[in-house]
Amino acid sequence: MIYSVINIDMVNSRKLSQRLTIQDELLEMVDDFNKEYTSLLLSPMTLTLGDEWQAVLKKPEKTYFIIDQLQQVFKKAHINIYAGVGIGEISTAIYSDTRKMDGECFILAREAIKIVKNKNVFYNDYIHSKKNRVFFNAKPVMVNNRYDTFSEIAATRIDETTSIDDTTPITLMNIINNLVENNEVLKSKITAKQQDIITLYKQHNSYNKIMKFNKNTSKASISQKLNDAHYFVIKNNDDMIESMIGLYIRLREEICNE
């Protein structure tokens, strides 16, 4: 089976004052998180080394959704996070303690967290914005001797600076990471007031219900805040990321069953 591992590290954790107090608060919040998302988690999220956390998902297509939820959890403690994701198989038995497990997805997640923590964007081949702290890592699958380029369609990239075509296979993970990076940049620009409206809209999915709980707002104001935050663009990308991870898993499983 294919699983996903999320390795989490806190940004500038060594500079935090009252680290032990913050860690205790996070342990309580993460415990609530584990209870809420037990249907998606293979093993509960646990503290591994120092300020690093790890979660294992039995539904990898929900990985980016879970990362978004974790970003909100850590933001309550005014902390930003790095998230490195590995998608693949587990080679050991399944344990409730993630530290007892290992395999492809764990190795790839360790590689991913190193990539995303490389702060020098100029020398980082995978991360192109300092606002992006999320990276997905998975082995490219082969379909009839081609990479996972949408069934068997070869995707190409043209180098416009030369007269020579630079034909490069574009894998599903390339596209997933591109969508993730676009989303992370957009999310970094969301204001506190916009986030409040987004949270209410996710809860109620109705302008009228939001107005019922917030007497001082209007449909026009709600709409403007959602659009200024690019909420619907982000939501569309979220759905696309989930679908593409699902497609990647199906391709992997088809190859394993051949």
From TrEMBL:
Family annotation (Pfam families): SatD
UniProt superkingdom: Bacteria
Protein name: SatD family (SatD)
